[in-house]
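Structure, all two chains, one model.
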Amino acid sequence: AQTVTQSQPEMSVQEAETVTLSCTYDTSESDYYLFWYKQPPSRQMILVIRQEAYKQQNATENRFSVNFQKAAKSFSLKISDSQLGDAAMYFCAYRIRSNFGNEKLTFGTGTRLTIIP
Amino acid sequence: EADIYQTPRYLVIGTGKKITLECSQTMGHDKMYWYQQDPGMELHLIHYSYGVNSTEKGDLSSESTVSRIRTEHFPLTLESARPSHTSQYLCASSEYPTGTGITEAFFGQGTRLTVV
């Protein structure tokens, strides 16, 4: 079974600084996807960034980037120039890539990020 | 903003009552999911569906049931609510990937259920 581990229950960062959230996962699959989702206090989960396992290049979306280390099964999220609106719960998630469409998302336990003004 | 809606947002109900949590999406997605989010914020998949008349149990055992009679609608029902069912319930949907495409899941705002 696949598992996703987020070892940092809470993190805080000064506004405008950079913060890195950690995520490790365990799988025997070779083809899969990884995601970071953000859940603000309003509760609607939204996608921040995603990475295909077959791509060596790290995904980047504006101020958000990942450090994907496939051999180490590590998938960390870096937030640059942190803003107050980044305060939220962040979830790392994993999904196998299947031709049958029977993929399921497996989530980590989340990291609560606080932005200090 | 994702076109997936959950009602009600908040529900307080007495033990033994039957309840249905509604989830609808207007994106035409075949795949839909129900997650239970406990007070520690961890999400657990309790039900999913790959299309009309398809429902499967998820990784976390749940006393709830689901149905998928229409593509856009995926309601979750508790026949007899108990305090142990108190939780946040999140509905999500996604489309089947085409080619090497990667698809994301879109989430509703959730229903916070309290059983007293």
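The first strand of chain B starts at residue 4 and ends at 7.
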